[in-house]
Fold this protein.
Amino acid sequence: MTGVDFIFAIAILIMSVVIHEVSHGYAAYLLGDSTAKYAGRLTLNPLNHLDFVGSFLVPMFTYLMGGFILGWAKPVPYNPYNLKNQKWGPAIVGIAGPASNFFVALVFGMFLRFSGYLLFLPNSFFDIASLVVFINLILAIFNLVPIPPLDGSKILFAVLPYSWREVQNFLERYGFFLLLFFIFFFWRLLLPIMLFLFRIITNINF
């Protein structure tokens, strides 16, 4: 990845994590919670969402260590007690973020899949589209890892039986350290999944 590609990748990452977080906020809003709206987070303005660690330091680290971009924005606040559905509401709010990234990846992936019919578009557009698909797939898959505060944990907690609440308490207590451990040692496990989905969406083989 060249310096120019890196700059484009950071810009795409920022907008992708903003879409991700706004999707959380709108899902909560539709389920009865206006916390994100009152906090001014139902906006695509990146300045309202950027997190120094997740939006800058982690992308730099993952780029230097593995040549790809990973990161996040400030979580959109919401009050789960305001949600109409107390059991599945948090899971729906949680899955809204990755779902939005999958949707963005699918839209731009269609440009790549049917690029043979879009010859009027410059090659640079398809290069950028590839980055959009890659980054959004990474964001979606990474956030589905069931470690707090990632979205996958909200889905996991919704399906865990009550007798397993100690598992939830453990993950919530030590989630930050488990997440750091995962990023440092196991994030590469996500790459085959991402490459498989990229190939399915775009019909491009590596």
